[in-house]
Design a protein that fits this description.
The complex is a heterodimer. Chain A has five helices and no strands. Chain A is an all-alpha fold. The two termini of chain A are 20 Å apart. Chain B is built from seven helices and seven strands; from the N terminus they run ααβαβαββαβαβαβ. The chains are: A mainly alpha, B alpha/beta. Chains A and B meet through helix 2, helix 3 and helix 4 of A and helix 1 and helix 7 of B. Chain B: It comes from Solidesulfovibrio magneticus (strain ATCC 700980 / DSM 13731 / RS-1) (Desulfovibrio magneticus).
């Protein structure tokens, strides 16, 4: 069972690393997607577009290696909660924007599929977080 | 009890701090290492305006556009596809798909009843699309003097609660 959760944590790390790549390559395209959500003020959009992918990279690396695993798993869960909330807001407002989750290209529009995908990742995040925290608690 | 909680939580906050500091630090360092660093603060609205002005167009934000709806001589033109238009649009808008600029634009505009003296507000889907600017520029070239673009597009219109019709 322990091996399963370690593998799950590492897979989650890879997902975060994969998700960060495209946004790091083209931060302006990512910034435009963030802006289109119409949640952040214009002045904050670029800073978030530059910073967020690198936090994803750090979280991904930490999940992959197990370094500061509690902080990483909790950060992953919090980030996924924020992403899902932003998507839900855009969906509710009828904003037909790109998700900006895994790519900055125009082939990842918010849809039921993106909700199912990100919801599944969120579920894995919560499982990993629970496991990491329980293990930390049991540790001497 | 509070002491136990503090002792348990402190390392967690430290872990979170390490992640944030590393992430921010890396983003600053890697942005500085770019050939053309991306500005940390970008006035996107000004960028939109400059892009539109370069094409000889004025811009209007959705809040101001809402107040223009229904005024005499003001026509909202939807540059999206006929399919998108049929699903949901600005109330009273006319559909002139951006592709029309590659054909007989004068005839297409005439069929919609657009007149040279009309104040035309062109929009497309959202901030990511350039169809409105391209069509607006083509309309200006075709002799329509008062062409304004709403860069936020239909999504911006929805966000400010502008009147719509044909909603899904």
């Amino acid at each position: 069972m322990r091996v399963f959760f370690v593998l799950l944590r590492m897979a989650l790390g890879l997902v975060f690393l994969f998700a960060a790549w495209d946004k790091i390559v083209d931060p302006m395209a990512f910034a435009k997607i963030i802006r289109n959500y119409q949640i952040l003020p214009d002045m904050a959009v670029s800073a978030v577009a530059l910073t967020l992918p690198w936090i994803e990279v750090v979280v991904g690396m930490c999940l992959l290696t197990g370094f500061v695993a509690r902080g990483a798993s909790l950060s992953a869960s919090l980030m996924m909660a924020v992403f899902l909330a932003a998507m839900a807001w855009a969906w509710h407002k009828g904003i037909a924007t790109q998700c900006g989750c895994f790519t900055t290209k125009a082939d990842d529009a918010i849809s039921q599929a993106t909700f199912i995908r990100d919801g599944s990742i969120m579920a894995v995040c919560l499982l990993v977080t629970l496991d990491v925290f329980l293990r930390a608690r049991r540790a001497p | 009890m509070a002491g136990v909680v503090t002792r348990r939580l402190a390392p967690l906050w430290l872990e979170l701090a390490v992640i944030v500091i590393l992430g921010v630090g890396l983003s600053v360092a890697m942005n500085m290492a770019r050939q053309e660093p991306v500005p940390w603060i970008v006035d996107f609205a000004a960028l939109d305006k400059r892009d539109a002005l370069r094409r000889g167009l004025e811009t209007i934000d959705p809040h101001a556009a809402v107040t223009m709806l229904g005024k005499p001589g003001v026509v909202f033109v939807d540059a999206r596809t006929a399919e998108e238009f049929s699903m949901h649009r600005v109330a009273g808008a006319k559909n002139l798909p951006q592709e029309a600029m590659y054909g007989d634009l004068d005839a297409a505009a005439g069929n919609l009843g657009l007149r040279a003296e009309d104040r035309i507000v062109v929009y497309c889907g959202n901030l990511l699309c350039d169809k409105s600017k391209e069509l607006g520029e083509a309309l200006r070239t075709a002799g329509f003097t008062f062409v304004t673009v709403m860069p936020e597009g239909f999504d911006g219109w929805l966000a400010v609660g502008g009147p719509t019709e044909g909603g899904a």
